[in-house]
Amino acid sequence: MTRASTPDPQPAGADSAPTARRVHRRLPLRKALPLLMAALLLSSVTIIAAVTTSALSNSLYGQLNSEVRLAAERSLSTSVATGDSQIDPSDPLPPGLTQRTQRARTISVDVRNGVLRAGYIDDSGTPTYHQLTQAQVSALLAVPVDDSRIYEVEVPGLGTYRAIAQTDSTGARIVTAVSQATVSQTIASYIFVEFLVMGIAVVSAIGIGWVLLRRALRPLEVVAATAQAVSATELSSTGVQLSARIPEEYVDGTSEVGRVAGSFNQMLTHIDEAFQIRNRSERKLRRFVADASHELRTPLASIRGYTELVLRDREHLPEHATEQLGRVKSESERMSGLVEDLLLLARLDSEPVIERRETDLRGLLIDAIADAHAAGPDHHWQLDLDAATPLELMGDENSLRQILVNLLANARVHTPKGTNIVLGAHRVDDQAVITVRDDGPGVPPELLEHIFDRFTKGDGSRTPGAGSTGLGLSIVQALVHAHDGSIRVDSVPGEGTTFTVQLPLLPQQESSDEGNPDTAPVSSIQPKP
Questions:
Q1: Whose CA, among 66, 328, 374, 513, lies 20 to 30 Å from 7?
Q2: Whether 435 contacts 302, CB under 8 Å
Q3: Looking at the domain that runs over 233-351, which CATH code has it been given?
Q4: Could you give phi then psi for residue 456, rounded to 5 degrees?
Q5: In what order do the strands lie in the sheet with 486-492?
Q6: What's the predicted TM-score (pTM) here?
Q7: Residue 379, SS3?
Q8: Which residue from 187, 74, 60 is spatially nearest to 121, judged by alpha carbons?
Q9: Gap between the Cα atoms of 43 and 35, Å rounded
Q10: Domain-by-domain residue ranges, the chain?
Q11: From CA 368, how far away is CA 503, in angstroms rounded?
């Protein structure tokens, strides 16, 4: 893989700030639906309760108003029948209150000939009468005289009453009032029962609805879990198989979830068949590439050998023939390198097994930076390495060396002269973090995501003999993965590029090199030519 030598300019006025998106959090259906049902039930029961409470209140207060009118008629009729001459002046109670048909909690106020008589029947309902206080009498006398209209009066110390004020034929003013405490208590008890029933109904609806909906949504949860398992599968890897399926017990042709489950299974089967066809095609292609590359090695070696043999006697050859044979030799060497790379990739694809031995990365890093300086003296090479920190792992030394050589060669080929290139290696926990940083022109954004693809080239390959085959970074990635490691690239056009390789290390042990001056930290070393 190559990198462009010139960065792609940023379009003028481009907005680099990411667009903020609002994230809407949603409850799962097994929680949302019971809550929705409870809300609907609560609203319905509330409306019903309000209507029934209003109807009960109107009915009870209507009956109470009828009782007030009857009590007023009895008081009025008793007052007229008694007459002024038959009333005992010393009796403090009004004549209407002596009517034995009057109910408990009835108040009567009688004003005639300038004499005020007032009293009430207590809760027992027996003919036991009580005098009223001045404040209580004043509250009742404030009721306007209206033979048909009933007023609500707050009598101090006795509560709320329904009262009506009348005048008889003798001109006496009679106020009759009946307590509405019984009606208020009845309505309050009814409201309490309603709230109790509403609470029980809502809690029961949530509990029963949660159980029923969880059972009903179980197939949908299985579909979601299967979809998540498929989405977590690395579909880009070779030989992938989609074995996850929704159990047949959740597949049917009647319910919506059952039909979705059947369609999802069928879709997974088609995708798996497509992957198998792709895998077979890739295996055939890799076998063809490996066979073709293997067959090409012999003729290429023959071409190189005969060319070198002829060039040994170059003093007897014309000048143009010598130049042309030199080109033939150069191109055959380039072709041989390409064939070797193809053979290596084919072997890693088919059998990504390497010979693992205990290897120290520190020596490989020092050798790699020295070789890179010899190959590119026009670049500034630096090594950032703490030689006192052990970097030992189980791996193939030749493969690890090729990883470093390819990364450094990639940085050298695709950056201009004078570029600073730093090879760093540090231990982070049980991982070796190897970085190759340069301050070159960077990688164009459109090539960055394909940088490890095979035969991906940038503008740096336009110079004959200075470019690459586009397989170097592909080989690096394959070798890193064969060592159970990872590789990534970070690049900003105009600011540089960094390749980061992570490889698992052996557990760190007590170093026996402490105090040895040869193990001093190596940091920012400039290799000498």
A1: 374
A2: no
A3: 1.10.287.130
A4: -95, 120
A5: 486-492, 496-504, 431-438, 420-428, 380-385, 522-525
A6: 0.45
A7: coil
A8: 74
A9: 12
A10: 29-187, 233-351, 358-525
A11: 17
CA torsion through residues 462, 466, 468, 473, sign: negative
What is the CATH class of 358-525?
Answer: alpha beta
190 close to 100: Cβ distance less than 8 angstroms: no
Q: How far is CA 376 from CA 379, 385, 398, 423, 458, in A?
A: 6, 21, 21, 14, 19
278 φ/ψ sector (left φ>0, alpha ψ -120 to 50, else beta): alpha
- Cα gap 416→334, rounded to integer Å: 22
What does the chain come to in residues? 529
**Is the CB of residue 482 less than 8 Å from the CB of residue 353?**
yes
CB 521 within 8 A of CB 386: yes
C-alpha 68/C-alpha 162 separation (Å) is 7
DSSP state of 456: -
CA distance 283 to 290: 10
Q: Which amino acid is at 121?
A: I
CATH class of 29-187: alpha beta
Per-residue model confidence as pLDDT tens for the chain (529 residues) = 444 444 444 444 444 444 444 545 677 777 778 788 888 888 888 899 899 999 999 999 999 999 888 888 888 877 666 655 556 665 667 777 766 667 888 888 888 877 788 888 887 766 567 788 899 989 999 999 887 789 999 999 889 999 999 888 778 888 989 999 989 999 999 999 988 988 888 888 888 888 888 887 788 888 888 888 888 877 766 667 777 888 888 888 788 888 888 888 888 888 888 888 877 777 776 666 666 666 666 777 777 777 777 777 777 778 777 778 777 877 777 777 666 666 666 666 666 556 788 888 888 999 899 989 888 899 999 998 887 788 888 888 888 888 898 899 888 888 898 899 999 999 888 889 999 999 988 888 888 887 887 767 665 433 334 455 677 788 888 888 888 899 999 988 888 899 999 999 888 764 444 444 444 444 444 444 4
| Contact criterion met (CB below 8 Å) for 34 and 153 | no
% helix / strand / coil in the chain, to the nearest 5? Answer: 50, 15, 35
Query: Nearest 5°: phi and psi at 174?
Result: -125, 125
E strands, 139-213, are 151-155, 159-167, 173-179
